[in-house]
């Protein structure tokens, strides 16, 4: 439980979106954007694939093993989600009247999901699985590393057009991340 306790305590230390548009020494790793208007949007094929992975990771988490009786995973999910929501939205022009087509709102909601996924994985497994050495940046651990640096891993770069995860997996194409 130590890893989870440390994770939750450190949520307030994450510079949620405070480095958007700023250069990073890691920029050569990814495709970088420097403005909200250059975010491809939620209907871009890369955004659709990213959302499908987030849903798959959550489904795997909630279905993989029985939940401990003393602390339900769903309660932990909401605790982390709500904490990150309050912290992250303070650093972007979040607007209650907007939806996922508005970049700042999409960024905050994605940060909430990513943090909840990481925290719940720590709860269940005691650690966040390390990303495999591969051509893929499309892993929760890799994306989480960008959130921790104050950036938004906003989309997957995917120029093929189709968004079926089985077809995506079969291509063997390099999988790069777009980061704001």
Could you write a compact summary of the structure shown?
The protein is mainly alpha-helical and 180 residues long. The protein is 47% helix and 6% strand.
Instruction: Estimate nothing, just give the exact number of structural domains.
Output: 1
Largest sheet, strands/sense/barrel: 3 strands, mixed
Total helices: the number is 6
Q: What is the residue-mean pLDDT, rounded to a whole number?
A: 89
Order of helices and strands: HEHHHHEHE
Q: Estimate percent helicity.
A: 40-55%
The number of distinct β-strands equals 3
Please tell me what the overall shape is: globular
Distance between the termini: 32 Å
Unreliable sequence segments: none
Query: In order across it, which strands form the biggest sheet?
Result: 1-3-2
Query: Which structural category fits the helices and strands?
Result: mainly alpha
Q: Whole-number radius of gyration?
A: 16 Å
Strand content: 5-15%
Write the layout of secondary structure elements.
Elements: H1 2-10, E1 31-32, H2 45-64, H3 73-89, H4 103-125, H5 140-148, E2 153-157, H6 165-171, E3 176-179
If you had to describe this structure to a student in words, what would you say it looks like?
The protein is mainly α and 180 residues long. It has one domain. Helices cover 47% and strands 6% of the residues. A three-stranded mixed β-sheet has the order 1-3-2. Helix 1 packs antiparallel against helix 4, helix 2 packs parallel to helix 4 and helix 3 packs antiparallel against helix 4. The protein is globular. The model has no long low-confidence stretch (mean pLDDT 89).
């Amino acid at each position: 439980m130590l890893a989870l306790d440390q994770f939750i305590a450190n949520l307030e230390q994450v510079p949620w979106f405070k480095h958007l548009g700023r250069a990073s020494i890691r920029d050569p790793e990814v495709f970088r954007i420097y403005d909200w208007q250059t975010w491809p949007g939620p209907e871009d094929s890369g955004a659709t694939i990213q959302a499908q992975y987030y849903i798959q990771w959550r489904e795997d988490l909630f279905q993989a093993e029985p939940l401990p009786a003393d602390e339900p995973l769903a309660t932990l999910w909401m605790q982390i989600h709500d904490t990150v929501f309050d912290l992250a939205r303070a650093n972007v022009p979040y607007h209650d009247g907007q939806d996922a087509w508005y970049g700042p709102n999409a960024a905050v909601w994605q940060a909430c999901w990513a943090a909840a996924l990481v925290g719940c994985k720590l709860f269940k497994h005691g650690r966040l699985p390390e990303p495999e050495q591969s051509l893929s940046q499309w892993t929760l651990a890799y994306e989480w590393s960008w959130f921790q640096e104050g950036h938004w891993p906003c989309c997957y770069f995917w120029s093929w057009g189709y968004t079926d995860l089985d077809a995506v997996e079969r291509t063997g194409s390099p999988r790069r991340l777009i980061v704001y």
